[in-house]
Amino acid sequence: MLIATWNVNSIRTRLSQVEDFLDEMQPDLLCLQETKVEDKIFPISTFKQKGYHLNIYGQKAYNGLALISKVPLEDVRVGMTGELNQGKDSIFFDEQKRVLSALIDGVRVINVYVPNGSSINSEKYNYKIQWLACLREYLRSQSIRDEPLCLLGDFNIALEERDIYNKDRFDNGIMASQIERDSLKNLLDENKLEDVFRLFEQSSGHWSWWDYRSGAWQRDQGWRIDHIYLSQDLIANSKSCMIFKKARGNSQPSDHAPVLVDINWPPSEFENHYFI
């Protein structure tokens, strides 16, 4: 099973690029973030004509998510409110469309777009930390279902120093502050989720996002902030994980590149791999 995640930074602007990606890579499921379009004007027909099934959760001009799949998805869930029963707080965090999940072949895929935070001295930063705390509670609520879990998307956090091209310049700033990193690490540890990309590539120099400013793409000055985290049963059956850097070189590209994971799922009776 091939699953991809991509912050597309406007589906209408990047529609042909998404089509090209689907044609070339043929993922079973493509999870998009920052679709930036209301559901009623999402270009659904383009994908249906290609035989894909869609689940969308959008808003005008900002945020928004989509699931584009080869097969119909099951038990599709939007937002975090319905899982938490926390009244006004969880409703507040769902005003922005940032969480969309579904089952594919029995695997719970949770597509997230974590707030950027703007700067560590802003109210948006406080919102980001509170949102991550809400996500932690949301993931805790998923554990009662005992489903294999794939948490992916744009996390707007470089979890480790090797995930930034110049750690000395950016360390402890936005997307690299210790509070952000600890918030993400805690929810991953609690749910026994692992960064599948790091099973296959330990070195630095692998980026998924390049700022539009300052010639970051041309200089290959990027960050790795788009992640795929898997539960242990999926980790044990992971075959590969890659960043599709080619997409960032498109004309009028998103500032993010897709990330893909290939999982032997449902697992073969005779095949069960663990890569270190």
Give a topology summary:
Blueprint: E1 2-7, H1 15-25, E2 29-33, H2 44-48, E3 53-57, E4 65-69, E5 74-78, H3 81-84, H4 88-93, E6 99-104, E7 107-113, H5 123-142, E8 149-154, H6 167-170, H7 178-190, E9 194-195, H8 197-200, E10 226-230, H9 232-235, E11 238-243, E12 259-263
Parallel strand pairs: 1-2, 7-8
Antiparallel strand pairs: 1-12, 2-4, 3-4, 5-6, 6-7, 8-10, 9-10, 11-12
- Cα distance, first to last residue? 20 Å
* Principal-axes shape call: globular
Secondary-structure content class: alpha+beta
Radius of gyration in whole Å, from Cα? 18 Å
CATH fold-type name = Deoxyribonuclease I, Chain A
For the biggest β-sheet, the strand order reads: 3-4-2-1-12-11
- The number of domains: 1
Percentage of residues in helical conformation:
25-40%
Uncertain runs are 272-276
Order of secondary-structure elements: EHEHEEEHHEEHEHHEHEHEE
CATH superfamily: Endonuclease/exonuclease/phosphatase
Q: Strand content of the residues, in percent?
A: 15-25%
Biggest sheet architecture: 6 strands, mixed
What's the CATH C level? Alpha Beta
The total of beta strands comes to 12
CATH architecture: 4-Layer Sandwich
Counted by DSSP, the helix tally is 9
In summary, what is this structure?
By secondary structure, the chain is an alpha+beta fold.
